[in-house]
């Protein structure tokens, strides 16, 4: 139990900073609350250097994009800059579609001025241009477009099987990845030597999702199965499943359509724009140690949509938090779970507006 772990593993400090015993007359709840607050302070003081709360995307910088080009002409290069900037803006805005925002058109006209570097690449599939944008400039642009970012989404792990039951490799999933990338969603691929169990992932098995988070740093998984011109899909986001099917005349069309369907479903769940500051209570269970609690607080305080978080209390293996965010609490919980360390809990906790469980 979290309370028991904190009681036995973290000693309280007196007013002078020395480690001492719990003062007489302090209730168990007050003692836990005081210890949690002190732990939070110590964690922030030392910067939690050993923790990596919301880790970098496995596929590299969200400010770098590769787009196909026909040749090395100025016209093709400038068109590629525009395409690349559109994808980067969508990524950094957390998947939100910014095309209707005032100022978006002018930003596209000036795409070249935001480019930090670019490089042509030639492969079997043709010529492409890798474009890298200046992060600070992109973030300021998004702010001027009037968007409160919910943070860059983690990549989606693709577990797609063919009719023979074997997982597709990266080259086989190119059309799916391309359609997702064009709309600002990154993907990642399973380790061919030891891939996750697709069936267990589709069933949102907690141990499987915890292992996926540990290796691939995401709570987003697309499980697919192709057979005779049709396919079935399961998108797992924070432990919640969305299922659909599609048909196509070719394998590439099936995969490309699936990429768009995946982005649509992620967008509906995660890309919620708040009308103002939302404040409410979030319960997080499954915390087995003081380090879990410190890791949780660090992750929450690193989230750009959260302006303030404080601990109200603790019971058994969970904590009740008061959270202020730029998005509704339900959307915040979904986005946190998509990061991989948390699961959306189907059973609501008393007094909480959102309920989550910590993954191990």
Q: How would you describe this structure in keywords?
A:
36% helix; 5-stranded mixed beta sheet; single chain; 360 residues; alpha+beta; 24% strand
Number of helices: 11
Side by side, the strands of the main sheet go 5-4-6-7-8
Shape: globular
Order of helices and strands: HHEHHEEHEHEHHEEEHEHEEHEE
Based on CA atoms alone, the radius of gyration comes out at: 23 Å
Q: Helix/strand-derived class?
A: alpha+beta
Q: What percent of residues adopt helix (DSSP H or I)?
A: 25-40%
Which band does the percent of strand residues land in?
15-25%
Brief summary of the model shown:
With about 350 residues, this protein is α+β, with helices and mostly antiparallel strands. Helix content is about 35%, strand content about 25%. The N terminus is likely disordered.
Description:
Helix content is 36%, strand content 24%. The chain is α+β, with helices and mostly antiparallel strands. The strands form three sheets. It has a five-stranded mixed sheet with strand order 5-4-6-7-8. It has a five-stranded mixed sheet with strand order 10-11-9-13-12. α2 packs across α10 and α6 runs parallel beside α9. The longest helix is centred in the last third of the chain and has 20 residues, at 251-270. Mean pLDDT is 79; it is low at 3-59.
SSE topology:
Elements: H1 2-9, H2 28-46, E1 64-68, H3 74-92, H4 104-109, E2 115-123, E3 126-133, H5 135-144, E4 156-161, H6 174-181, E5 187-188, H7 198-202, H8 206-216, E6 220-227, E7 230-237, E8 240-247, H9 251-270, E9 278-285, H10 290-302, E10 306-315, E11 318-325, H11 329-338, E12 342-344, E13 354-358
Parallel strand pairs: 4-5, 4-6, 9-13
Antiparallel strand pairs: 1-3, 2-3, 6-7, 7-8, 9-11, 10-11, 12-13
Helix pairs in contact: 2-10, 6-9
